[in-house]
Amino acid sequence: MSEAENETVMREMLSIQGVTKTYNAGKPNQVEVLRGVDISVARGEVVGLIAPSGAGKSTLLHIAGLLDVPDAGKVEIAGQDMAGRGDRARTAMRRAGVGFIYQFHHLLPEFSALDNVVLPQLANAVPEREAAERAMMLLEKVGVGPRASHRPSALSGGEQQRVAFCRALANKPGLLLADEPTGNLDPDTSDLVFDVLMGLVREEGLSALIATHNLELAAKMDRVLRLDAGRIVPA
Fold it and tell me: Which positions fall inside the ABC transporter domain (predicted)?
């Protein structure tokens, strides 16, 4: 690798190159979802991804986060080419390097807000005391600290999603992937919670690829990409 290429690798947190994905390949009802997608996200950069329904954004995020495998192309995270890696290596990268946020919070209902942020760290072999301290620190940053002992059912929708943000960042990932992270909230709450998310991302120094249909929210990011008919087109 040349010095220039090595510098590019070190600068990029996420690199997606020539990624394609087709479901039911070779069958009459096959669907070509991604058609040679190229995306790069620099270290510390927040990139917005806007797309109409059915354009393939969720598939793209799943591939970027190593939850799905492309038919062709490659995905590099923090300079590591994940093509051909086994399940164990992909799982290890997801646990240590990638945080996920979805439209619905998916918190564990039987556990408190604090426990929901502690548990991913315990799964990553973080000592319990250290995990609890980081969990509380994150919850306080997003304004949910006083309600850390409450279960999700006792929290508002905005509070639940803030806890989900903290859970995604619990293991100090370098890359955050978010799929309509405020899409389940009313407009006023959505704006407030999104600002909380952006503040947390900036403070933690994360790279992020955030899918949203809200153009006003997308405008708050460093750069905006548009996915349409399986390709990246001018936003």
Answer: 14-235
| CA distance linking residue 224 with residue 76, whole number of Å | 20
| Beta strand ranges found along the chain (DSSP E) | 12-23, 31-42, 46-50, 72-77, 80-81, 98-101, 175-179, 207-211, 223-228, 231-233
Q: In what order do the strands lie in the sheet with 31-42?
A: 31-42, 12-23, 72-77, 80-81
SS3 content of the chain, % helix, strand, coil (to 5): 40, 25, 35
For residue 19, the SS3 value is strand
User: How does pLDDT run along the chain (235 residues), one tens digit per residue?
Assistant: 444 444 544 578 999 999 999 987 777 778 888 999 999 999 999 999 998 877 888 899 999 999 889 999 999 998 888 877 888 888 888 888 899 988 778 899 999 999 999 999 998 899 999 999 999 999 998 889 999 999 999 999 889 988 999 999 999 999 999 988 887 778 888 888 888 888 888 988 899 999 988 888 888 899 999 998 888 887 7
* Kind and range of the H or E run holding 136: helix 128-141
CA–CA separation, 184 vs 227, rounded Å?
Answer: 21
Residue 55, classed as helix, strand or coil, is: coil
- Domains of the chain, with CATH numbers? 3-233 (3.40.50.300)
174-206: b (≥16 Cβ within 10 Å) or e? bbbbbbbbbbbbeeebbbebbebbbebbeebeb
